[in-house]
Amino acid sequence: MDTVIRMGVRAVGVVLVLAALGAAGGIGLAQAQDEQPVALDTVAPVVGTGPTYPRDPRVRVLPDPDFPILARGLATKQVRIGIAPYTLTFDVPKGWSRFDSTFGEWRWYPPDWVKNTYFIRVRLIGNQFRTVADALQDRIDDLSGADAVTDFHLDYQSADTFVASYLTAEHRILTMERYIGSDDSPGTAYASLAVIGRMVDRDGMTALLESLTASATSEPPAPTSDGSDSADG
Question: Where is this region: Disordered (predicted)?
Answer without folding.
Answer: 212-233
